[in-house]
Amino acid sequence: MTETALPDTESRAVATAVREALARRRMSRQALADAARISVSTLEKALAGRRPFTLATTLRLEEALGLPLREAPAAPPGSVRHAPEELGSYSRESAAWLEGRYLTLRPSFGTAGAIFSYRTEIAWDAVSARLVFREAERLDAPFAQAGCVSVPNLSGTIYLVTNWQGQHRLAILGRPTIQGEMYGVLTTLHAGRGAHLTPAACPLALIPDRDGPAAIESGRITPEMGAYPLCRRHLGRACEDGFAAFFACPA
Fold it and tell me: Superkingdom of the source (predicted)?
C-alpha cells in the first residue's frame, strides 16, 4: 500500500516548520530522524523538496517534536461561534447585548472645557468570529478608529483594541449600567505640534444611541451649548461613580 503524500503546498509548510523547530532546539536532523523512527535520508529528501512528506512521516515528526506541523483546516465563514481565546472566548450569543450604536464622549484634546462627541458601532464579524467596533461621525475623520472587542470572563471588563501596524489604542470600559451605559478610560496618542505624538489618557463614556443621546450632534460640545450639561454629567460618571481612577504624579 502506498503512503499518502501531502499536497505540495502543505508539504512545503511542514518542511518550513521542521527546519524552524530544529533551529530553535539546536537539534540535528539525525537526532530528529531517530526520535521519529524514520531514516535520515527520508527526512533530508523531504526537507530539500525532492520528495513530499507523507502523512505517516508527518505524524511521527509531530510526535517526536511535540508540536503540530500542519495547519488545521479553516472553518467555513460564519460557522465559528466563539471569539479567539486572546479576546475572551466569548460566544456571539453571550456578547450580543454589546452590539449596537453608541454616543461616545471624551474630553476635547484641543479645546479646554469642551467635550468631544462621536459614534461608535459594535457588531459581530462572522469572518473573524469576534465583535468589532468602528468609530463614525468624528469631527477629525482621518483619526477614526476601528478594531476588535475583548470581553474576558475573569473581570467582565470590556476592551476596545486598535492595533494598526503595531501602534495600539485601548479603551477600557467597566461593566455596563442597567441602562447599558459604559464608562472607563481611553489611552491613546495626542497629536501635538507638527508630527509630535504624546501618550494621553482621559475618561470615556459610551451611551446607547437611542432616544435622548441620538439628538446630540457629533462634534465639539462647548459649555454654552444645550447638550453640554447632559454630556458633562455622563462623562463625569467615569470618575465620580468609580468606573475609573486617575492618579496624579507625586509632588
Answer: Bacteria
Number of structural domains (the chain) is 2
Q: In whole angstroms, give the CA distance from residue 132 to residue 105.
A: 19
> What are the CA-CA distances from residue 31 to residues 24, 35, 55, 69, 149 (Å)?
14, 6, 20, 18, 45
Range of the domain at 15: 8-65
In terms of Cβ atoms closer than 10 Å to its own Cβ (0-12, 13-18, 19+), residue 121 is: middle
Contacts of 45 (CB under 8 A, 6+ apart): 51
pLDDT tens digits for range 177-222: 999 999 999 999 887 766 678 899 999 999 998 755 556 888 999 9
Cell digits of residue 149:
472587542
pTM, to two decimals: 0.67
Same domain, 20 and 110: no
E strands along 108-196, which residues?
A: 115-125, 130-136, 146-150, 158-164, 167-173, 182-191
